[in-house]
Amino acid sequence: MLRLGITGGIGSGKTTVCKIFETLHIPIYYADDRAKWLMVNSPALQTGIIQLFGEQAYFADGALNRAHIGSIAFKDPAKLQKLNALVHPAVFVDGENWQQEQLALGAPYTLKEAALIYETGSYKMLDKVIVVTAPQDLRIARVMKRDDLSEQEVKERIARQMPEAEKVAKADFVINNDGQHSLIKQVLAIHQEILELKA
Q: What's the rounded mean pLDDT across residues 23-41?
């Protein structure tokens, strides 16, 4: 079974593209969503996060205080690095377990959706990587609307990610989500190509 990754900068539209793949019955591992789940449900991760960010990292009901963690992690690169060093190995193990389940179910290929596929080195465990790209002004507008952030806050987050051009250069497949090109046509073309690779 082929393992594919799908990535792209913040606001590029990775999730929208994944929803199209899901209509083709392709199983998708949403790494960032699973990371959030593990941060609440893994006692080992919780302990590490509290050591890094204090008791305020969690609300009284056990929910993750993302605003508190984000306000510190995005201003302190060393703390962000330590957080990633806690979370990424846990997500990797979780993803491997998921992969084995999909293999048993007979999916033609799987997709791992993650913001940091190249940055964490997880692309080395994948057969192919799809990069979703979009013009920066469009990405900024999407994230401002979605996350209720200022333009400056979004630009700061973009600046901390690997440049989009670098991701595109490394990609096996590129999906252009600029609002001018049909996402469905692009996804179907890639899907067909992957099935032919398997044949």
A: 95
Instruction: Dig out the tokens for 100 from the structure.
Output: 């084995």
| CATH number, domain with residue 112 | 3.40.50.300
Q: Cβ distance 20 to 118 under 8 Å?
A: no
What's the alpha-carbon Rg for the chain, to the nearest Å? 17
- Any alpha helices (H) in 74-135, and if so which ranges? 77-105
Whether residue 150 contacts residue 193, with contact meaning beta carbons closer than 8 Å, is answered with: no
Amino acid at 127: D
Whether residue 91 is found in the same domain as residue 77: yes
Query: Regarding beta strands 109-113 and 2-7, do their DSSP bridges make them parallel or antiparallel, or are they unpaired?
Result: parallel
Model confidence pLDDT, tens digit, residues 125-153: 999 999 999 999 999 999 999 999 999 98
Residue with tokens 């333009």: 151
Q: Per the structure block, which two tokens stand in for 32?
A: 């960032």
pTM of structure: 0.87
How would you label 174-185 residue by residue, b for 16+ Cβ within 10 Å and e otherwise? Answer: bbbbeeeeebee
Burial of 36 (C-beta count, 10 Å sphere; 0-12/13-18/19+): middle
The last residue of a domain, from among 106, 134, 163: 106
Residue with tokens 């791992």: 112
